[in-house]
Amino acid sequence: MPTTPPAALEIDRGSAMPFYHQLKHILLVRMEAEGLAGGDRFWSDHELCARYGLSRSVVRQALSELESEGVVERTRGKGTFVVPRKTEHGLARTAGGLFDVAAARGLRLTSRVLRQEVVPASDVVGANLAVDPGEPVVVIERVRSLEGEPCVRTSTWLPLRRVPGLEAVDLTDDSLYRVLREQYGIAFGGASRSVEAAAASSETASLLGLSQGAPILLLRSTQRDAEGEPIETYVAHHRGDRSRFDLEIGAAVESATVQIS
């Protein structure tokens, strides 16, 4: 790893800006210039103290701020490492699918289909889709990968009467929402979604390349069509170390619900 930054990136000892803040800015610029990526080892406290002539307390304060901002991760006995950048999926605030969100960001999303068949609706699925329990629904279970890396496991259910033949459509490299729009003429309306923290089961962990019990983000969604009729419900297990959901909050809070257990 190169250790010599551009000459301009030096501590200005005559500046009113605190040294730790200057160092933090310098390190962010160096990371970008030298192409440090997720998992790369960061400069040690000793290296930074020696290079910039700073006390260890100043260096630690700068690194503490970078850690609190999710830029680096410090592990006792191992050192400091760059945290992999998380993908903002946009699914908590837009009525759309992951395929469309990934395409808008120039990312390639592929799917490994684990199951795609017609089954009777369970009580929970029936309630979400406003159909009677036992009514035929199409279930689609997939592992979705961004740029070749598994990132989410999804289980999706749709009423068969609205999507006859969907169980035979190849969704390996295609968007389910595109198929629903173009092949079935479905126009989308609003959606109800919730996000919560969870621990990966042994099966989910194996599919996503995680250790059992690793943190995941559990997204539940029921999508409605333009007439307000439920058209799809799904549960998605997103890798906690690769995913984040950004929200836009307005002044009105009547529709927001917080549950604490």
From TrEMBL:
CDD domains: WHTH_GntR
Swiss-Prot/TrEMBL keywords: DNA-binding, Transcription, Transcription regulation
Organism name: Luteococcus peritonei
Domain HTH gntR-type: from-to ranges: 17-85
Record-linked PANTHER family: MANNOSYL-D-GLYCERATE TRANSPORT/METABOLISM SYSTEM REPRESSOR MNGR-RELATED (PTHR44846), MANNOSYL-D-GLYCERATE TRANSPORT_METABOLISM SYSTEM REPRESSOR MNGR-RELATED (PTHR44846:SF1)
Xref: InterPro entries: Bact_HTH_transcr_reg, Chorismate_lyase_/UTRA_dom_sf, Tscrpt_reg_HTH_GntR, UTRA, WH-like_DNA-bd_sf, WH_DNA-bd_sf
Protein name (Swiss-Prot/TrEMBL): GntR family transcriptional regulator
Keyword presence, Transcription regulation: yes
Domain of life per record: Bacteria
Extent of the signal sequence: none
